[in-house]
Design goal:
There is one protein chain. The strands form two sheets. A six-stranded parallel beta sheet has the order 2-1-3-4-5-6, sandwiched between helices. Strands 7-8 form a two-stranded antiparallel sheet. It is α/β, with parallel strands linked by helices. It folds into two domains: 124 residues, Response regulator (Rossmann fold); 84 residues, Orthogonal Bundle (Arc Repressor Mutant, subunit A), CATH 1.10.10.
């Protein structure tokens, strides 16, 4: 079975790829660390599966990678590995068409077993804690930050977002950092899950000719539940 393993930390990515190959001689894994490397590897290597870390750094655009692979390379299964405590993350991942969500608490042997099950058309989704039944507090985003969250939710990558919003990549990353801090997440997948719960997922980003709003945004309240 051919695998592409993507983690934002090259040491961890290579370590997991080596560990999987050592555990099972039939697994041939290639380690990558960012969106471009991952998509290129899937295109050139035609793997059976792509294993992604749920907390890829912002620059790696993990959500974008999932969408690109599922749309361009439907024969490659996508498996997310993480320790997400929000059930919404798994729900969002399923909407994206992934075939597995594996907890980081698994041993390498257990991961290998799960990958073989997934390869046999048996989706594997490890359980995550149930959400506490309570009204989640609202979070407040500026219109520009809300636009960034919507663009994250529809899977745009960093360069496209910056180009269409007519801002520098460094400025966009500041917006993303602020959004993550305000809504309490650490990855784009988690942010998309929050956007889905806030009914922002299906909203399309505004047309480019309507994007010249004031950069001195007034405050906009967006509910998180």
């Amino acid at each position: 079975m051919r695998l592409v393993v993507c983690d934002g930390n090259r040491i961890l990515s290579e370590a997991l790829a080596d560990a999987l190959g050592s555990c099972d001689d039939n697994l041939k894994a290639v380690a990558v660390t960012n969106a471009d490397e991952c998509i290129a590897a899937v295109c050139n290597y035609a793997p059976d599966m792509c294993v992604l870390d749920v907390h890829l750094p912002e620059a790696a655009d993990g959500l974008y990678v999932m969408r690109e692979i599922r749309s361009r390379f439907p024969d490659t299964a996508v498996v997310v590995v993480g320790d997400a405590s929000d059930p919404g993350v798994v729900t969002m991942a399923k909407k994206l068409g992934i075939t597995g969500f594996l907890a980081k608490g698994r041993s390498v042997v257990e991961v290998v077993d799960a990958l073989h099950r997934i390869a046999s058309d048996q989706p594997v989704f490890d359980p995550v804690p149930h959400a506490v039944s309570r009204r989640a507090p609202s979070f407040v985003l500026t219109p520009r930050e809300a636009e960034v969250l919507r663009r994250i939710a529809v899977g745009q990558n960093t360069r496209r977002m910056a180009d269409e919003m007519d801002i520098a990549v460094s400025t966009l990353r500041s917006y993303i950092k602020n959004v993550f801090a305000k809504i309490g997440v650490h990855s784009r997948l988690e942010a998309a899950a929050v956007a889905s719960r806030a009914n922002l997922f299906d909203e399309q980003p505004p047309p480019q000719d309507q994007q010249n709003v004031s950069r001195r945004d007034s405050q906009a309240t967006v509910p998180s539940a």
